[in-house]
């Protein structure tokens, strides 16, 4: 399928899709309202992208969106010129109304076009493209108002009566053009849902637009009252400008706006005030309206400010509570610093701009799996422990992994802790620390792509080291239960993991360990496992040596007492058997946490038990020989 075909298909399936947007946000919410989306009914398995009938215009067509934007500009012009013509242009010239007729022509075309634009049913959320239903819906809703706001009353009067001046009744008919402001209201409703625009900026723009229009409309109406009053000197503007009708239009308009804005803000200086009952009555109505408008403006402004500062206030409260907790419990400065760094990092990563974990949690599991596969598959596949395993095993791992951020000098794993999670360092650096003679020393540093805590998780052993971040680090985490569950479901991959854990040198995994006051230590689980096995072998050899010495000692005393010789043989056999049983149990625990132990592992266990076993055999043989003697 070609790219252009896919674009057309996406446009039908996803009304929010806007391929013309190159700013990085391909899904534009300017043309998307969740209440207008076309949704299939529940259980509908044959839902296909809507195919409109002939001669119909899709409401999501980009060309139709351009047409709507042109209408918005014409609405702004109508909102400004309509009150101005109503109040100031008493003797109406022909020139301004030529532009009005052109604007009316555009809206007349929009009325006819509306009969060919499908709509979304509010109950079924389906796109209705039946021409009859479209016509009935429009005729029963806004058709009458749209026609009245578009009808050219002034041109008709000129043709019929051939005069430019007419009464207020005909002027009120022209005021019906303000009905077109509903287009601006729907525009702001869409802009508020558009993530490409800052919500606070859109909201402020809307509030300022409402305020300016109220000031403009009130100033025009108040001037109209003064202009139509029988005695011009007994008007609010005639008291300071006796011949105000002879002044320029600009001066009269600015004076009207000055009165309107001083009355709106209740800071009138007394220079312009009502002089007759008509003006007093309008002033009362205007100030009552100002009470509602002021409350509306203050309420919206307050909500915007509170919304923008609420997170900062919450962050300061959490930091203050953490500091007081550390001081009250006399925690060391290092722990307090880790607490504050973690809070600051959480504020940054889970703030308004990121919210990564929140975004992943609201998505379906399959979508989260695809995202994790795209982000972390190569990182997990490159870890030494998972080299050679199947791709399906890696896919199961990355699906269960969670990405976390750790601030500098924050402990990831503590020494001698029974770790319940396996960690993989994606970016950053982690220091490997250990306590020697009561002092904390650095053994090395884990680089990007290395595992943390795999020995404790897979071998059921306490962690041999403390892992502490050296700088801001991103780490993947998977719980021990989920990891072992995936291994049990993939036994062949479990064998590979166990082999990688025991023999890291075969796959080239040797973490970089820097020199320090103590000798270099290789931080690998298999190295530690080999050292432990070596210690068990030494224990078995010492046990065998002890049994031999006891046997020799009591053999010397056997000539004088058979009972003593019998007790000596039994004691030697018990010591050797106890040592053999202990070594076998520990080997079974280590190998049982993964998959069933293969032949090489059993050979290691047998080699460790052999000295103790031979001591037990020697003791039994000696006992039998002595009894025969």
From TrEMBL:
Residue stretches making up the Cyclic nucleotide-binding domain: 385-487
Membrane-spanning ranges: 70-90, 102-120, 141-161, 207-225, 250-269, 281-306, 563-584, 604-628
Any one of the GO CC terms: monoatomic ion channel complex
Keyword Iron: no
Highest taxon above the source species: Eukaryota
Primary location class: membrane
One Gene Ontology molecular-function label: voltage-gated potassium channel activity
Localization terms from the record: Membrane
Protein's membrane topology: Multi-pass membrane protein
Protein keywords: Ion channel, Ion transport, Membrane, Potassium, Potassium channel, Potassium transport, Transmembrane, Transmembrane helix, Transport, Voltage-gated channel
Entry remark concerning the domains of this protein: The segment S4 is probably the voltage-sensor and is characterized by a series of positively charged amino acids. The pore-forming region H5 is enclosed by the transmembrane segments S5 and S6 in the Shaker-type (1P/6TM) and contains the GYGD signature motif which seems to be involved in potassium selectivity.
Family as reported in the entry's similarity comment: Belongs to the potassium channel family. Plant (TC 1.A.1.4) subfamily.
Record's subunit section: The potassium channel is composed of a homo- or heterotetrameric complex of pore-forming subunits.
Described function: Potassium channel.
UniProt protein name: Potassium channel
Native source species: Zizania palustris
């Amino acid at each position: 399928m070609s790219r252009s075909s896919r674009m057309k298909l996406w446009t039908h399936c996803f009304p929010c899709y806007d391929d013309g947007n190159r700013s990085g946000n391909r899904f534009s919410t300017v043309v998307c309202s969740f209440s207008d989306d076309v949704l299939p009914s529940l259980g509908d398995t044959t839902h296909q992208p809507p195919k409109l009938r002939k001669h119909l215009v899709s409401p999501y067509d980009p060309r139709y969106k351009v047409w709507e934007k042109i209408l918005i500009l014409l609405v702004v012009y109508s909102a400004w010129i309509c009150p101005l013509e109503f109040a100031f242009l008493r003797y109406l010239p022909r020139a301004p109304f030529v532009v009005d007729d052109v604007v009316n022509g555009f809206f007349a075309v929009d009325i006819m076009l509306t009969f060919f634009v499908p709509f979304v049913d509010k109950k079924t959320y389906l796109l209705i493209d039946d021409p009859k239903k479209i016509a009935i819906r429009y005729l029963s809703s806004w058709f009458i108002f749209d026609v009245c706001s578009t009808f050219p009353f002034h041109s008709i009067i000129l043709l019929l009566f051939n005069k430019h001046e007419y009464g207020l009744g005909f002027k009120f008919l022209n005021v019906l053009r303000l009905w077109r402001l509903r287009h601006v209201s729907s525009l702001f409703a869409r802009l508020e849902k558009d993530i490409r625009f800052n919500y606070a900026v859109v909201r402020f723009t809307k509030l300022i637009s409402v305020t300016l229009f109220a000031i403009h409309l009130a100033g025009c109406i108040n001037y109209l009252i003064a202009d139509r009053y029988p005695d011009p000197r007994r008007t609010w503007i005639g008291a300071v400008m006796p011949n105000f009708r002879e002044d320029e239009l600009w001066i009269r308009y600015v004076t009207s706006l000055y009165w309107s804005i001083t009355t709106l803000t209740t800071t009138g200086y007394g220079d312009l005030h009502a002089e007759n009952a008509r003006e007093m009555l309008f002033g009362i109505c205007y100030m009552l309206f100002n009470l509602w408008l002021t409350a509306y403006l203050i309420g919206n402004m307050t909500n915007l400010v509170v919304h923008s500062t609420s997170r900062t206030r919450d962050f300061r409260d959490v930091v203050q509570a953490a500091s007081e907790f550390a001081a009250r419990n006399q925690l060391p400065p290092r722990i307090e610093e880790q607490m504050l760094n973690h809070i600051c990092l959480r504020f940054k990563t889970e703030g308004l701009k990121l919210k990564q974990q929140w975004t992943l949690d609201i998505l379906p599991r399959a979508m989260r799996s695809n995202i994790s596969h795209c982000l972390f598959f190569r990182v997990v596949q490159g870890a030494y422990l998972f080299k050679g395993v199947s791709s399906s095993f890696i896919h199961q791992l990355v699906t269960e992994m969670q990405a976390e951020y750790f601030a500098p000098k924050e402990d990831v794993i503590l020494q001698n802790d029974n770790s319940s999670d396996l960690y993989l360092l994606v970016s950053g650096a982690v220091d490997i620390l250990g306590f020697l003679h009561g002092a904390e020393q650095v053994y090395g540093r884990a680089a990007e792509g290395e595992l943390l805590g795999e020995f404790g998780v897979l071998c059921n052993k306490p962690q041999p080291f403390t892992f502490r971040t050296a700088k801001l680090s991103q780490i993947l985490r998977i719980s021990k239960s989920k990891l072992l569950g995936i291994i049990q479901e993939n036994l062949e991959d479990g064998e590979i993991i166990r082999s990688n854990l025991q023999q890291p040198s075969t796959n080239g995994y040797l973490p970089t360990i820097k020199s320090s006051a103590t000798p270099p230590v290789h931080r690998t689980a298999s190295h530690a496992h080999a050292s432990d096995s070596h210690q068990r072998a030494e224990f078995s050899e010492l046990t065998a040596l002890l049994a031999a010495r006891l046997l020799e000692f009591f053999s010397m005393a056997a000539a004088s007492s058979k009972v003593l010789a019998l007790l000596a043989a039994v004691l030697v056999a018990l010591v050797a058997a106890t040592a053999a049983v202990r070594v076998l149990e520990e080997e079974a625990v280590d190998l049982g946490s993964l998959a069933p132990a293969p032949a090489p592992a059993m050979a290691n266990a047998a080699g460790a038990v052999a000295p103790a076993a031979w001591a037990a055999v020697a003791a039994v043989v000696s006992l039998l020989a002595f009894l025969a003697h």
